[in-house]
Structure formats: C-alpha cells, structure tokens
Amino acid sequence: MHIIDLSSPVDSEQYEPDPVEHTVLTPAAGARHMSEEMAEHFGLGFDVDDLPDGEFLSLDRLSLTTHTGTHVDAPSHYGTRASYREGGPRHIDEMPLDWFHRPGLVLDLTDAPTGAVGREVLEREFDRIGKLPEPMDIVLLHTGAPRYQGSPKYFTDFAGLDGPATNYLLDLGVKVIGTDAFSLDAPFTDIIARYRETRDRSVLWPAHFAGRDREYCQVERLANLELLPPHGFTVVCFPIKVARAGAGWARAVALVDNP
C-alpha cells in the first residue's frame, strides 16, 4: 500500500486573504511559562535551572480560519437552512466518519478555464476514465490550482463547478466532493463579475448553496492529485472534530495499492 499525501500546508509565510498568525513559545520560554503556571495554579515552586539546558517544551499558537489549508466543509457552512432535515444542517463534529474513508475517483479539469464547468465536462471525464462513481465514492477534481499556491492567483485563477454539475454528482450518490482549488465554486472574482453582468442569481456560489437542499461535504485545497490514478484508490480525509464548526482541517491522503 502506497500513501500519497493530498494535503496542502497551513503556512503563515504564504499569502492568505485571511492571514495566518503563528507564534512559537520556544523550549526555554516554555520552561518559564510552565514554572509560572505551576506557581499560579497549584502553588508549586519550580526552578527552570533544574531542567536540562533550562528548557521544557515548545508551544505553537495559531490564529486562522477552519478554511485555511486542506479542510472539509460541513453542511452548516452553506447556511442555516436545511430543507432535507429537521433541526438545521449538521456541523463538522456531527458528520459520520464513514463518509471520509471511501473509494475515490479523480477527474482532470486542468484544461478548463477560470470559471464554472458544467455537467457535460464531468460526463466527458467519466467517459474518458471509463468509470462512474458508486454511491458514497469520493470524487476529486484536479484543477491544477496548486501551481499558484502561496500567491494571490491561487484564489482567483481556477475552475469550479456550476449548479447542474454539482447536482449531477449528488444524483450519483456522491456525498463528498474534493478539489485542489480554493473553492468548489468558481473564484469569487469570477462569480461577482458574471453576476454584475447578468444579474442571474444562479451564478452565486451554486456548488455551496446546493448544500442547503442536499446534505454533502466538500474537501477544499487538496494537493498532489496529479499523482493519482483515475480510480482504484481510497481517500482518507477525516476532519478535525471542532465542536459546532462549519469546517474542520484534514490531513487528507490517498491509499493506492502497489502494482
């Protein structure tokens, strides 16, 4: 079994519209912090000089959104309405784990221009690879967007899905759709430009808004999809269990049988 990493990093040195803040408490500072905490909370005195090299443990603090790096969008990310169930859409910590350990297929959209591709593009790709997804399979979209990772273009130059394309996958029984782009929808800049030109509300984030009427999850900001065969592999993308959150980070991988 070969493991292929499908995850993009959380990196405070890369460009992000919502910047990542990453501060590090060094092992030496960690020793002082521990000593102060022991005194404050437990009334215990401890001399950091008793530690090897005067060091304890490092500590990383990050400020970021749950949509930074590779992550899974929960149904609650798409809005407060869920026409398919009582009680509103589920958060990421409520999603069944078996959704995120499934056979996968990858479709090549690298020739698609910036914008939203339609159902016919997906149908041609399924014909090319000679396979349709089974219910619950995970479909991954290889757009080539990671070539712009760390630059503003990563957020403006990629292909997403339109409404009919998204619903086509859901009609096939797919519950998890992944992409190596910033969003499963077209870029914000493209969507807003098309809406200002047409005033057609159906162009406004149709892939996300489909989730208000049909329960499914998106995995966004994947990587290395070009390393995968079209099918015959397993996707593992368990989301971090963030209580009451609309998304959770994931260390996504593909499990591929060795030839």
From TrEMBL:
UniProt cross-references to Gene3D superfamilies, sorted A to Z: Putative cyclase (3.50.30.50)
Gene Ontology MF annotations: arylformamidase activity
Xref: Pfam families: Cyclase (PF04199)
Gene Ontology terms describing biological process: L-tryptophan catabolic process to kynurenine
Domain of life: Bacteria
InterPro entries recorded: KFase/CYL, KFase_sf
Protein name: Cyclase family protein
Organism: Nocardia colli
